[in-house]
């Protein structure tokens, strides 16, 4: 059986063979515990972790002391939000976030509410964007944190991060961003942009699953959520996942080198797919239709088709409806609902996300497949 063409890079990416190659020795020959300070096995592992820390820091213009390795972006978001809440609750207990955040932020904020904190969920416009003014208007004297995602995982829209960070700081709050979909895709400069805390995950940028980081600017304190041996300067205990960390570092290094060429190439392929669909299939529109969005992704609504049938009929391509993280449930995507789509429109929306190994042939094949399937489904209907 032929595998479907993979167009779901926002859900996860394959490990780049160069990343895998860098990781392999750290499972076997160099298996030491990076916290072992008494012998060469430990020192070697510690050195590899230090190199990876530099590679991650360099991509974001952070300091290597600021990188805290975690099990992924879910943990990084938990650590950022709960860690700041616990540390600074003597100052205030109000947090501002966005209604279209990933569940890893939204559910953490719900937990904060259970603990007695207050959370404001900002509503974006019909394209998924918020304005710095909305943040300013929501700020209160007891606001301790503003958490706004860099780029949305479902529709790819990029928030005005620098401006939002500036108004957060003007209001005396810290600024956190879930940058999981932006790291390695967009040039990020934590210093210039005024980002205090940033979450990322390796498996969204051609690294392995189960490893990520929270980058915490110097001077910003967080309460650890995992107590133990005091690893990561007391911010996240637990024996370091050395092969994973090496893989994340290598993935960051590759992303830094290849980002601009890759963005350009994928932008052309994405435009080819998007324009092809819009031109060849009537009653279609782009969700999050703004120039402020990631180059490798398009989320398209196909009106007057049954969403479930559509996905089932598209056997030759792998795409998602709504967010992969909520695909276990049959609810329409809350992100698309917030943009103003009806349930049916949300169900009949597909996210195509391209990546490093996408080819022109694959895109042309996908386009043809989608056109054929939608035409077949609409035969006999009034459209
Ligand atoms: C994938 C993703 C996460 C979760 O990352 P994990 O490393 O899988 O826990 C969080 N936020 C966004 C925006 C994501 O795309």
UniProtKB/TrEMBL annotation:
<dbReference type="GO" id="GO:0030170">
    <property type="term" value="F:pyridoxal phosphate binding"/>
</dbReference>
<comment type="function">
    <text>Master enzyme that delivers sulfur to a number of partners involved in Fe-S cluster assembly, tRNA modification or cofactor biosynthesis. Catalyzes the removal of elemental sulfur atoms from cysteine to produce alanine. Functions as a sulfur delivery protein for Fe-S cluster synthesis onto IscU, an Fe-S scaffold assembly protein, as well as other S acceptor proteins.</text>
</comment>
<dbReference type="GO" id="GO:0044571">
    <property type="term" value="P:[2Fe-2S] cluster assembly"/>
</dbReference>
<dbReference type="GO" id="GO:1990221">
    <property type="term" value="C:L-cysteine desulfurase complex"/>
</dbReference>
<dbReference type="GO" id="GO:0046872">
    <property type="term" value="F:metal ion binding"/>
</dbReference>
<feature type="binding site" description="via persulfide group">
    <location>
        <position position="325"/>
    </location>
    <ligand>
        <name>[2Fe-2S] cluster</name>
    </ligand>
</feature>
<dbReference type="GO" id="GO:0051537">
    <property type="term" value="F:2 iron, 2 sulfur cluster binding"/>
</dbReference>
<feature type="binding site">
    <location>
        <begin position="201"/>
        <end position="203"/>
    </location>
    <ligand>
        <name>pyridoxal 5'-phosphate</name>
    </ligand>
</feature>
<feature type="binding site">
    <location>
        <position position="153"/>
    </location>
    <ligand>
        <name>pyridoxal 5'-phosphate</name>
    </ligand>
</feature>
<dbReference type="InterPro" id="IPR015421">
    <property type="entry name" value="PyrdxlP-dep_Trfase_major"/>
</dbReference>
<dbReference type="GO" id="GO:0031071">
    <property type="term" value="F:cysteine desulfurase activity"/>
</dbReference>
<feature type="binding site">
    <location>
        <position position="181"/>
    </location>
    <ligand>
        <name>pyridoxal 5'-phosphate</name>
    </ligand>
</feature>
<keyword id="KW-0411">Iron-sulfur</keyword>
<dbReference type="InterPro" id="IPR015422">
    <property type="entry name" value="PyrdxlP-dep_Trfase_small"/>
</dbReference>
<keyword id="KW-0963">Cytoplasm</keyword>
<keyword id="KW-0479">Metal-binding</keyword>
<dbReference type="InterPro" id="IPR020578">
    <property type="entry name" value="Aminotrans_V_PyrdxlP_BS"/>
</dbReference>
<keyword id="KW-0001">2Fe-2S</keyword>
<comment type="subunit">
    <text>Homodimer. Forms a heterotetramer with IscU, interacts with other sulfur acceptors.</text>
</comment>
<feature type="binding site">
    <location>
        <position position="239"/>
    </location>
    <ligand>
        <name>pyridoxal 5'-phosphate</name>
    </ligand>
</feature>
<comment type="pathway">
    <text>Cofactor biosynthesis; iron-sulfur cluster biosynthesis.</text>
</comment>
<feature type="domain" description="Aminotransferase class V">
    <location>
        <begin position="5"/>
        <end position="364"/>
    </location>
</feature>
<comment type="similarity">
    <text>Belongs to the class-V pyridoxal-phosphate-dependent aminotransferase family. NifS/IscS subfamily.</text>
</comment>
<dbReference type="InterPro" id="IPR000192">
    <property type="entry name" value="Aminotrans_V_dom"/>
</dbReference>
<feature type="active site" description="Cysteine persulfide intermediate">
    <location>
        <position position="325"/>
    </location>
</feature>
<keyword id="KW-0408">Iron</keyword>
<dbReference type="InterPro" id="IPR016454">
    <property type="entry name" value="Cysteine_dSase"/>
</dbReference>
<feature type="modified residue" description="N6-(pyridoxal phosphate)lysine">
    <location>
        <position position="204"/>
    </location>
</feature>
<dbReference type="Pfam" id="PF00266">
    <property type="entry name" value="Aminotran_5"/>
</dbReference>
<dbReference type="InterPro" id="IPR010240">
    <property type="entry name" value="Cys_deSase_IscS"/>
</dbReference>
<keyword id="KW-0663">Pyridoxal phosphate</keyword>
<protein>
    <recommendedName>
        <fullName>Cysteine desulfurase IscS</fullName>
        <ecNumber>2.8.1.7</ecNumber>
    </recommendedName>
</protein>
<keyword id="KW-0808">Transferase</keyword>
<feature type="binding site">
    <location>
        <begin position="73"/>
        <end position="74"/>
    </location>
    <ligand>
        <name>pyridoxal 5'-phosphate</name>
    </ligand>
</feature>
<dbReference type="InterPro" id="IPR015424">
    <property type="entry name" value="PyrdxlP-dep_Trfase"/>
</dbReference>
């Amino acid at each position: 059986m032929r595998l479907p063409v993979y167009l779901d890079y926002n859900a996860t990416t394959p490990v780049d063979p160069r990343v895998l190659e860098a990781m392999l020795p750290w499972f076997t020959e160099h298996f030491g515990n990076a916290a072992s300070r008494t012998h060469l096995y430990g020192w070697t592992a510690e050195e590899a972790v230090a190199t990876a820390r530099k590679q991650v820091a360099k991509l974001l213009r952070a300091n290597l002391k600021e990188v805290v390795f975690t099990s992924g972006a879910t943990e990084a978001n938990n650590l950022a939000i709960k860690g700041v809440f616990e540390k600074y609750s003597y100052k205030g207990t109000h947090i501002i976030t966005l209604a279209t955040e990933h569940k890893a932020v939204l559910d953490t904020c719900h937990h904060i509410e259970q603990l007695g904190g207050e959370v404001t969920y900002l509503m974006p416009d019909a394209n998924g964007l918020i304005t710095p003014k909305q943040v300013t208007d929501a700020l209160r004297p007891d606001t301790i944190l503003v958490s706004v995602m860099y780029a949305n995982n479902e529709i790819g829209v990029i928030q005005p991060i620098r401006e939002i960070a500036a108004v957060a700081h003007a209001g005396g709050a810290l600024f956190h961003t879930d940058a999981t979909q932006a790291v390695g895709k967009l040039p990020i400069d934590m210093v210039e942009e005024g980002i205090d805390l940033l979450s990322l995950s390796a498996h969204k940028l051609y690294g392995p699953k189960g490893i990520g980081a929270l980058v915490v600017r110097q001077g910003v304190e967080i309460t650890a959520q995992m107590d133990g041996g005091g690893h990561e300067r007391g911010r996240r205990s637990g024996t370091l996942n050395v092969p994973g960390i090496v893989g994340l570092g290598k993935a960051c290094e590759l992303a830094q080198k290849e980002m601009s060429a890759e963005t350009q190439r994928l932008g052309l392929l994405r435009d080819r797919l998007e324009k092809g669909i819009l031109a060849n299939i009537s009653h279609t529109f782009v969700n999050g239709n703004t120039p402020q969005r990631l180059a490798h992704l398009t989320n398209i609504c196909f009106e007057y088709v049954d969403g479930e049938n559509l996905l089932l009929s598209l056997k030759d391509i792998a795409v998602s409806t709504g967010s992969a993280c909520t695909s276990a449930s049959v609810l329409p995507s809350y992100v698309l609902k917030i943009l103003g789509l009806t349930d049916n429109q949300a169900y009949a929306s597909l996210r195509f996300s391209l990546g490093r190994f996408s080819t022109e042939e694959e895109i042309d094949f996908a386009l043809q497949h989608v056109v054929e399937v939608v035409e077949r489904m609409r035969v006999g209907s009034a459209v």
